[in-house]
Design a protein that fits this description.
heterodimer, A: 5-stranded antiparallel beta sheet, 13 strands, 60% helix, extended, B: mainly alpha
């Protein structure tokens, strides 16, 4: 065993605790090189300090500020509808300080441009609104003017557009103070966003106590809101009223509702003139706006080229400073002290990186690197490749392995897809999955670079799991002899034939066996026969038990290797040995019976054997006897199992207690003594034995463990029957779809019905069988691994 | 239906109760406040808050921060929480949630009316309004000249309309009138809210009656203290007290005749739950009273979370968040004005 080459995945990498003493000038470079390597895990030495009390808080803040600017750019770019190009940039690396200045410049430029274009946009909007008001309100006035006597009076309007004067000075000539004499009927025209019209009208009505006339017409064009840059529907209104007080009220209400009002001259010729002017100015503005937008887009595009790179750079810098904040300053303030974990194999790489950092930053003092002792348990690190990574993740999802614990993912690589396939045995479906997996693998490099949806991401991550799952399900499908639930004669002829040539009794009385058994897997003649289900059930159920017992034994054996590795003979003697005896004397024996029954073709009832082994072990087995000496063997096995339980339960806690008392030789103040010596030892090797031994706790713990194991042996074996159940469900479901959908539809001599049937069959196969069933079989396989297999040996409390 | 909430409460409000309890877990703790109090600049505060639930709201603020921005963004978070819950709520929880905002609505109305009285810009005033108390036509408040107009024009559309029945006068608005209006409205609001909670029954009624009584009593005490030395008559003063709470009715009689703060204290000390408030204060001191009340309120609000299946948690959460924002405002002001020695004066730790 010991001279085999080490396998990376069997146990996690050996770690060493290292201390780095880094001169200040090369600290940044060293940490960024280490970060690129990704093989050192720093410990936070300043955990007691709040984030803003740390050393590099200013740099972190600057990075946060820069990433805020970058987010702003990104936002602007996406608002402008530009696609940020992904093409690689050949620009040389920029320094962080330089980048900061650049970013600030760009931001100022952008903000200025935005402000300008916003101003332009606003005046453009005003003109546009004015134009719309002119068109709409003009038509009101004309139509009301034709059959109203007060045409002349309306002519003299009070235009209230003080705020409009600055932006459109050429309109000023139109504004003369109104001669409000005569009947005093005036009007205000303006525009308001459509959603507010109703409330606006109601408010006006209430404020005027009904003494007003409100006309409205929807605007033809939508107007862009400069702030949210959304298109808003607006409505033109004209309010007729009388009185000076009313006017001020209306104006206030307009203001409150955010309505803007524009003067509309009564005279049609004037109206036309103004409309012309407004239109020409609108055109001018449009040109300016367009130019502005073009300019802005150009600026944004030039930012967009670098954006991705900048973002990653700023993120990296931030990570570097965050890490630097985890280091300690030594007393002289000239160097930083860091502590961390690294795998032993990576030492050379780390040292090379550190040397490179020293060299590149022209530091006179090298970085000191030395290994230390550490009190706590090291982190777990597995070297995985793209194939084993997915399996490691399946295991890690349950819990990260304890340091140097034997790693279940080694076995999971094969057992997981295999157990999946036992539940998903159909080589037709298997081929579909295989094609999917192959597509994913073939486009691996392409898919790996682009961003995928969460579902695709999951599929892509598990592509090799999928590959193995599909291969195994083709294998199991061949054993079950199912191709979309149809059996085929692949491996020679069936062992059975009809009694006569008409074959009329085939489904009632059965067939005759006339030659050797079918070469591989289930004989296709079982299909559709009366005893198909009993036969397959018995086969799959027994197979499930065999697989389960084998896997659980595997788990217990792994616990032996764990115990041997950690040098704990106690665990081997008082945990591993009784456990394996207990499991095998009951369920191992059952497996043996199953195999014997298969080999000999005996008719014995195994339920009966197992049940009466407990109820009356001394009784004669009668016709259920499978082999000579079965009864004494059963008694011995039962006794062994009964011995194994207290063996598991009692010795370990008592031995632990004895060891504890021996270590401290009856001193009850042992703990205090060790903690005192700790203070004297230099902090490098601060090993403190936290030996707060509590016998009742240990005993209860052991009791829980033993009970869990004993009960678990029964329930876990039963749990493996899910293999049978799911495989049965899968084959029955696909039979139903095949017979009741496809064959039924094929029975009609009608192309449409056949096509519909085919479509339904394809749909059901793809979504229900290939997706839902795959998921459920996956989950059950997951559970079998996490619970039934891993609870035998896996602690999973590492980090 | 007392005692049966556990059966049916979760059908409609279970999800939201879970949400609100989750939000509660996001409230800043004493450790957070300790860290915040050590901050040197507003950027430090931002940095610390970026690790809390306020993080996403503050992360896009450019660096020279102002206290107002911090408070605004933190309030935005509260408003977002509230709106989310309101969208999910069904009757009667949605009405209950709406009730919570009426207090802000009253404050906003008063703010705008006072502002226009002193000829401030409406836009500026609108920015100062609490976003929870906004309603559509709030800007039109500036148009009104007297109470009657105020009611006719604007408030008739708002939920505050019924509370106005007691204070419609044709008098022109002035500061005194407005203050009386605020208190009358508040009184009507609290009484209405109290009635509503009693109608809901069960644990909600029990817990909310405790919380609202406290609120009513606090208002009564504040009214008494603030009206000392003004021309408000005793009867008028008494009219402003809400007709429930521990002080009702006998305490109100005594509060109405108080002439200085020590008399108020004397009245309050007759009520055991309020004795603790004054135990820390020396005689004649009224500045710290607010803080003492806040502390007592926070204690009661936190207790509301100890019971399940009632709506009080929503009220408590909103109030606690508001207190937290007040704390943040105070801390940031202290930090911004270099008055760090006073930072603990008005911060009320929630947990």
């Amino acid at each position: 065993m010991d001279n085999l080459p080490p396998m990376d995945l069997m146990r996690s990498e050996k770690m060493s605790f290292v201390q780095l003493i880094i001169p200040v000038e090369s600290a940044h470079r060293a940490v960024s090189y280490l970060g690129e390597l990704g093989l050192l895990q720093f410990r936070d030495l300043n955990a007691d300090k709040s984030p803003f009390q740390r050393m590099f808080v200013n740099q972190v803040k600057r990075c946060a500020e820069m990433s805020r600017k970058l987010r702003f750019f990104k936002d602007q770019i996406s608002k402008a509808g530009l696609l940020s190009s992904v093409r690689p940039v050949t620009q040389p690396d920029v320094e962080l300080e330089e980048l900061e200045i650049q970013l600030a410049e760009h931001e100022n430029e952008l903000i200025e441009m935005n402000a300008n274009s916003e101003k332009l946009r606003q005046s453009y909007n005003e003109l546009l609104e004015f134009k719309i008001v002119l068109q709409k309100a003009g038509s009101f006035l004309v139509s009301s003017g034709t059959h109203a006597v007060s045409e002349r009076e309306l002519d003299e309007n009070v235009y209230s557009n003080d705020d409009y004067v600055d932006t459109a000075s050429l309109l000023e000539q139109e504004m003369r103070p109104g001669i409000s004499g005569q009947s005093g009927l005036r009007f205000i025209s303006g525009i308001i966003s459509k959603s507010k019209v109703l409330r606006f009208e109601r408010m006006l009505f209430r404020a005027m106590r009904g003494n007003m006339l409100f006309n409205q017409a929807p605007a033809d064009e939508e107007i862009m809101d400069p702030i949210s840059s959304e298109m808003v529907e607006k409505t033109v209104f004209v309010v007729f009223f009388s009185g000076e007080q009313a006017k001020s009220k209306i104006l206030k209400i307009c203001e409150a509702f955010g309505a803007s009002f524009y003067p509309v001259p009564e005279d049609i010729t004037k109206q036309r003139q103004i409309t012309r002017e407004v239109s020409s100015r609108l055109d001018e503005l449009e040109v300016t706006l367009d130019a502005g937008i073009r300019h802005r887009n150009k600026a944004l595009a030039s930012i967009g080229v670098h954006l991705v790179k900048w973002i990653s750079m700023v993120r990296r810098e931030k990570a570097v400073y965050d890490t630097l904040s985890m280091l300690n300053f030594d007393v002289t303030k000239k160097c930083l002290v860091g502590e961390g974990w690294c795998p032993i194999f990576a030492k050379a790489q780390l040292q090379a990186a550190l040397q490179r950092a020293t060299f590149d930053s022209n530091s006179q003092v090298g970085i000191i690197y030395h290994v230390m002792d550490a009190a706590e348990s090291p982190p777990t690190y597995f070297r995985t490749n793209k194939f084993t990574n997915a399996f490691q993740e399946i295991v890690d999802a349950y819990g990260v392995a304890r340091y140097q614990e034997s790693n279940p993912s080694v076995y999971t690589v094969i057992t997981f897809p295999f157990l999946f396939a036992v539940m998903f045995g159909d080589w037709g479906h298997g081929i579909c999955l295989l094609l999917g997996a192959l597509v994913l693998i073939a486009r691996e490099s392409k898919l790996g670079t682009q961003k995928l949806g969460s579902f695709m991401e999951m599929l892509y991550g598990g592509r090799y799991v999928l590959l193995l799952m599909s291969l195994f399900s083709i294998y199991c499908g061949l054993i079950y002899n199912e191709f979309f639930s149809v059996p085929y004669h692949i491996f020679g002829l069936s062992a059975y034939k009809c009694r006569d040539t008409t074959c009329s009794e085939a489904k009632t009385t059965g067939l005759v066996k006339y030659q050797d058994p079918y070469a591989f897997g289930v004989d296709p003649s079982w299909r559709g026969s009366r005893s198909e289900l009993p036969f397959l059930n018995s086969l799959k159920m027994k197979m499930s038990i065999l697989l389960g017992v084998a896997q659980m034994n595997m788990g217990i054996i792994l616990s032996y290797f764990n115990a041997r590795f950690f040098g704990s003979s106690l665990d081997i003697r008082y945990q591993f040995v009784p456990q394996i005896i207990f499991l095998n004397s009951l369920f191992g024996y059952l497996s043996l019976l199953i195999i014997i029954k298969w080999c000999t073709g005996s008719q014995a009832d195994l339920y009966h054997v197992m049940i009466y082994m407990f109820l009356s072990p001394t009784e004669d087995l009668g016709e259920n006897q499978l082999f000579w000496g079965q009864r004494p063997l059963q008694i011995i096995l039962l006794l062994l199992a009964m011995i194994a339980v207290p063996w598991m339960l009692f010795p370990k806690p008592f031995i632990l207690k004895r060891l504890h008392t021996e270590r401290f030789q009856g001193r009850t103040y042992g703990i205090l003594a060790t903690s005192e010596t700790d203070l004297e030892v230099e902090p490098d090797s601060a090993r403190h034995y936290d030996e707060d031994f509590n016998f009742s706790e240990v005993f209860v713990h052991q009791m829980i463990h033993s009970i869990e194991f004993v009960l678990g042996a029964v329930s876990n074996t039963a749990s493996y029957l899910r293999l049978w159940a799911l495989s049965l469900a899968h084959s029955e479901l696909s039979t139903v779809f095949y017979e009741k959908v496809l064959l039924l539809a094929w029975g009609y001599d009608n192309l449409v019905i056949r096509l519909v049937g085919l479509a339904m069959f394809a749909f059901a196969t793809a979504f229900i069988l290939l997706m839902m069933e795959t998921l459920s079989a996956f989950l059950h396989a997951l559970r079998l691994h996490w619970v039934e297999f891993q609870n035998k040996f896996y602690h999973g409390d590492g980090f | 239906m007392y005692g049966f909430e556990a059966l049916t409460f979760n059908i409609h409000a279970g999800y939201l109760e879970a949400i609100v309890r989750g939000h509660r877990a996001g409230l800043l703790t004493a450790a957070d406040y300790n860290n915040l109090c050590q901050c040197e600049t507003l950027d430090d505060i931002k940095m610390h808050l970026s690790a809390t639930e306020y993080g996403p709201y503050l992360q896009n603020e450019p660096s020279p921060l102002h206290t107002t921005t911090i408070v605004e963004k933190c309030t935005l978070k509260l408003v977002d929480d509230y709106k989310h819950m309101l969208c999910q709520a069904t009757e009667p929880l949605s009405t209950f949630l709406e009730y919570i905002t009426y207090g802000h609505m009253i404050d906003n109305v008063v703010l705008i009316v006072t502002g226009t009285l002193h000829e401030r810009d409406v836009q500026e005033l609108l920015e100062k309004c609490h976003p929870l108390g906004m309603f559509d036509s709030i800007a039109t408040l500036a148009v009104a000249q007297n109470m009657r107009e105020l009611y006719r024009l604007v408030l008739v559309d708002t939920p505050l309309a019924p509370y106005f029945s007691e204070c419609i006068t044709s008098e022109d608005l002035d500061d005194m009138n407005i203050e009386i209006m605020r208190n009358t409205l508040y009184k009507a609001y609290l009484e209405d809210f109290y009635r509503f909670c009693q109608k809901l029954g069960g644990a909600t009624a029990e817990i909310m009656s405790d919380l609202l009584s406290f609120e009513a009593d606090r208002r009564a005490v504040n009214i008494s203290i603030n009206s000392i030395g003004t021309e408000l008559t005793r009867d008028d003063r008494k009219k402003l007290y809400s007709n429930f709470g521990l002080f009702y009715p006998y305490g109100h009689e005594e509060l109405a005749v108080c002439e200085d703060i020590d008399q108020v204290r004397g009245v309050m000390e007759k009520y055991p739950p309020y004795q603790s408030i004054f135990s820390k204060l020396s005689y004649g001191e009224s500045q710290m009273l607010d803080k003492a009340f806040y502390e007592e309120e926070v204690k009661r609000l936190c207790l509301a979370f100890e019971q399940q299946f009632h709506y009080g948690v929503f009220f408590a959460y909103m109030r606690l968040r508001e207190q937290e924002i007040r704390n943040l405002m105070w801390i940031s002001e202290c930090v911004a004005q270099n008055q760090k020695s006073r930072v603990h004066d008005s911060v009320v730790f929630i947990f």
